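re: ur question from earlier - yeah i can do the single chain one, its not a big deal. heres the input i used so u can compare w yours
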Amino acid sequence: MKLQHKVCVLTGGGAGIGRCLAGTFLREGARVYLIDKEIPDCELYQPSSGIKWFRGDIARQQTLDEFADWVLEQESGIDILVNNACLMNGGILSDCSYEDFLYVQQVGVAAPYWLTKRFKPYFRKGASIVNLSSTRAFQSQPDTESYTAAKGGITALTHALAVSLGGIARVNSIAPGWIETARFHEGTAVPAYTQADLEQHPSRRVGEPEDIARAVLFLCDERNSFINGTNLTIDGGMSKLMVYHNDCGWQLETE
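and the output i got, formated as tokens:
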């Protein structure tokens, strides 16, 4: 029970990595408070589980303030804040409007900033903030500008906050690569990858949400308090793989 008596606040906890994190925090003994636009009707989020959830859109400042007030009505201090929520909304090659682009930045960058500001007076000694970045902050596929910009923003915000919050809270980020989250969604979602998808990774597999959850626990452990303002890439080595046409079977297909 590594997080016994700790208070953990999590955004985007309804599905995917966020749902895995919520369950991990709970099993480690934490009191978990999460927010998402949709909270699934599953065992993890039943009142008997102990997780407390708040339904709302964190792109809105009013929602963030209501959520922060709700947490602070129940807790006098915060030990862990994980800013996980974000979304993809296309980019310059698709129908991503100004408002669509801005919305992703509000969820992925402005909301983490504002929640950190709201909770700043309440962080307990040894508090830790973990922001979920992405390898897309450093490399891109076409038509991903809204998401990529948000992940670049949260990565830079991480080291800025780490400096400003020295002595108050440590701030680090994690940049996942391919994480297969099908098990943490509702319905009949199945893993969508091929054998080639596995073998392209130097680790010879795609990631699982538990890979990220273990890293979050590591960064929140007070024994690792000298890790601050850094970004931890967890991608099976893919971002270190040099790719050229006709190299190791890679081919560029052109029209």
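The two ends are 56 Å apart (CA to CA). not sure if urs matches, ping me
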